Amino acid sequence: MPRILTCCVLLCSLLIAPFASGQGHVADPFRTDADAFLRSMVKELGIPGLAVTVVKDGKAVIAEGYGMADLENKRSADGATCYYIASATKPFTALLAAILDAEGTLKLNDPLGKYYPALVLDSIDLNKVLLRDLLTHTSGLDNAAISWRSAFSGDHDPALLDDLMKYCARNKAGQGCYEYTNVGYNIYGMVVQRATGRSWKDLLKEKVFDPAGMTRTTAYISLAQKNGWTIAKPYSVLSTTQPVPLEKQDNTMQSAGGLITTAQDMARWLQLHVNEGMLDGKQVIPAVVMRSTSVPLVKVTGREQRMFAADQSGAGWMLGSYKGEPVAHHSGGFAGHAALTSFMPGKGMAVAVMVNEDVSGGRLADMLAGALYDHLLVDGQAFDMSQVNAFAEQLKEIRTRIEAGIAQRAQRPWTLSKERSVYAGRYTSAKLGTLEVRADGSALHVSIGNLHCTATAFTEPETIRVELIPGRGEVIGFRMTDGRASGLRYNDNEFIRVE
Asked: Contact, 187 vs 143, CB < 8 A?
């Protein structure tokens, strides 16, 4: 009997082990119902896949992937699949800033001018812009060149980004007023490099990821590839056969939107917040530091409100409510990706959703977060597929409209007056870098840094339409001199032909 009992105990321990890491027990009714709902949702909507994290009573009950991470290579999504989270990176950068401030390494009350003492701008006094203003979207600064190169083209290095600071201008809101932007976080990352000699990427690993045991969260795509981690490929609602032709690389993983993470690591990130820095019974990050990023700091104006009615902002977190309960949250979106992270302070509840599809992803993340919070707030409430079914019909209409637009554009006559080879060449802009146009028979291929596409016709004389960023149609207009393309205009910038 003792031997049989020992075997039974061992068998039970093996069965329970997969759930002992804090992801919840398989018999948990919430997990069981949610799991069935999530699988049905992926199938009904026809999306590649998604990842979901749910924290309940301060513990992770779901940290799982559903559907496919990589359709071409037939890789399923699971709790260890890496998803790009875009602007949901901002709360991480803000927490790093709070830690560096508490350590005295980089004070949030320092003026920006302290780190750029030789830079004098016509309309902005950098000595009146504090580092904390960069993280609360109240700096009053705009700099499209820094944001473009950091997030899209990847054509930059620390010295070049510092030089681009001379193009800083006042934004519409002005200093002290809220205007959501990436550039504040980009500039904060640049200041970290100047002040410490280290990248914000490496400091986040040292100060947050390693202490929190977030083993597959990184700002380095190359690290994930080297280690053989599964990375969710980016897709569009129009095509689930090929990823969208723009994937993140190390040089476009930036401090306003530059992390990949997993459902399992997201569970630890959200537990850090609902438990005020406690993980596995240890105070990993001081509670006062954790709280400092999600307290109201500024009033939010002029920003679209989605799932949660955000009326205030902390540092990195938007602050709103859901059915009367306060919620700290931040979403993220990029070509082929969407994410939503959130937690309810004082409730021990948190939800994160990451989707590797862009057209439906943001709406889907909102819908799913609402359904999960409904279930958490009202114990035993059933998941309702009717909203999912209605959204599936809307997606069909969206696909039809997009396909009709593509077909209509394909019928446009070209308005270029010369042979394609006349427009081929390299064009440069001090702000955005070098754009190349290459002729291949009747086709024109356009590239700038990491971005590339094949142009289509546009309606105005001497113009072409490009989607260097998938899903974002833009126009390039050529400047003709003596029958030759001597320059072009793209993204509100003039480019001069150099060859």
From this structure: yes
Residue 318 forms beta bridges with which residues?
Answer: 313, 329
Q: Give the closest residue to 286 by CA, choosing from 300, 275, 298, 297.
A: 275
As a whole number of angstroms, the distance between CA 292 and CA 94 comes to 10
Tell the residue number behind the tokens 């899209």, with chain if given. Answer: 152
The pLDDT of residue 382: 82
pLDDT tens-digit profile of 25-54? 345 788 899 999 999 999 999 899 999 999
Place of tokens 């057209």: 359
φ and ψ at residue 205, rounded to 5 degrees: -60, -45
DSSP calls for 315-370: SS-EEEEETTEEEEEEEEEETTEEEEEEEETTTTEEEEEEESBSTTHHHHHHHHHH
pLDDT digits (tens, 9 = 90+) for 369-415: 999 999 999 877 888 889 899 999 999 998 899 889 989 999 999 99
230 alpha carbon, distance to own chain's centre: 18
Whole-angstrom Cα distance, residue 264 to residue 63?
5
Q: What is the pTM of this model?
A: 0.92
In contact, 103 and 195? CB cutoff 8 Å: no
SS3 159: helix
Sheet holding 75-76, edge to edge: 75-76, 59-70, 49-56, 349-355, 337-344, 325-334, 318-322, 312-313, 298-299
Q: What is the rounded distance in angstroms from the CA atom of residue 244 to the CA atom of residue 467?
A: 11
SS3 letters across 398-418: HHHHHHHHHHHHHCCCCCCCC
Please give the backbone phi and psi of residue 180, each rounded to the nearest 5 degrees, phi first: -60, 135
Kindly provide the b/e burial profile for residues 233-248, where b requires at least 16 CB atoms within 10 angstroms of the residue's own CB.
bbbbbeeeeebbbbbb
Query: Got the DSSP string for 282-326?
Result: EE-S-HHHHHHTSS--EE--S----SS---EE-SS-EEEEETTEE
3-state SS class at 134: helix
- Phi and psi at residue 399, to the nearest 5°: -60, -45
